[in-house]
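Q: What would this complex look like in 3D?
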Amino acid sequence: MPAFQSVAVIGAGAWGTALATVAARAGRSVTLWARNAEHAARIASTRDNPRLPGVMLTPDIVVTSELALAARADMILIATPAQHLRGAVNALASHLTGPVPIIACAKGIEHGTHKFMTDVIAEAAPAAQPAILSGPSFADDVARGLPTAVTLAAKDEQLASALVQALGSPTFRPYHSTDVRGVEIGGAAKNVLAIAVGIAVGRKLGASAQAALTTRGFAELARFGRTLGARGETLGGLSGLGDLILTCSSPQSRNFALGLALGRGEKAPAGKLAEGESTAPVLIELAASQNIEMPVSQAVAAILDGKTTIDAAISGLLTRPFKAEE
Ligand SMILES: NC(=O)C1=CN([C@@H]2O[C@H](COP(=O)(O)OP(=O)(O)OC[C@H]3O[C@@H](n4cnc5c(N)ncnc54)[C@H](O)[C@@H]3O)[C@@H](O)[C@H]2O)C=CC1
Ligand SMILES: O=C(CO)COP(=O)(O)O
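A: Here is my prediction, written as structure tokens for the whole assembly.
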């Protein structure tokens, strides 16, 4: 029996629901926690979550709104939006009885504090062991059992490896890492860049521009990551380049879809979480504080904030001085 037999997933949105199916498929006892009691009761009885329609939860997955029940698990995955991660871990902390691994599955940076997800966990639950899971993985694909690979990082390599053993299956392949910062940077930054690429596609700038913007986006993601201590292989791995490629090329991505709508001059899709919208201002504040040039992310933040028009932003990027490629 692996070290982590029971798994709790906090947050019953699309990603939390998909991760619950992953853990069940890997043979774990799974509890999916929804903060809304009615929502929990409805999913528990229908086995279907409207946030991930068409995916039936197997009968062995316990769906609850009782936090104390979820807190008893051997490992806990937090799948709330990034800006709600602190609130969720704060609520959980008083129920924890030991140094349980808490794995952040959200992609973002906290507003105001500029903290990455594992730092928020370390502050909100000091006794816990923070980890991060990120990589190219649409909830729908994962829940349907389509093949997916992600990175799971914790400071302690043995812990990261044991968590991977507990969650992995033939269709969900986590790779372990100790580069926690690198993994969380990739997941947060790629959402902002996906909005940029969506805008370019929506504006019909062509496939060449899409490839160029994705690549220059990666250049600034990597510049940011290197300055903050991330390893090159992480930035070029699943949580960096891998997730960037996925989200910058598919309308299935909510961030890409947001950009696409903006580029076409349409309204943003209603009721869809696009984390890049929240991450953009924090990312550029952090970059500015470290003197890191991130022109694409800056353009996205300025467009979202109404400080510039899409056409002015595109023109601004295209008329930057020519320079060496780095
Ligand atoms: N949907 C996807 O394909 C993937 C999503 N993610 C990340 O997972 C995070 C969540 O995204 P989704 O599940 O897609 O969003 P979603 O909008 O489907 O669901 C978010 C869920 O979080 C719940 N929630 C909000 N605040 C909460 C709190 N304080 N405590 C407990 N639950 C709370 C909401 O009620 C909702 O059920 C985001 O950071 C996203 O970037 C990561 C990989 C894939
Ligand atoms: O993070 C994701 C895929 O790896 C999901 O992307 P969106 O949040 O843009 O839908």
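A: To summarize the key features: The first strand starts at residue 6 and ends at 10. Residues 180-202 form the longest helix (23 residues).
Q: Very helpful, thank you.
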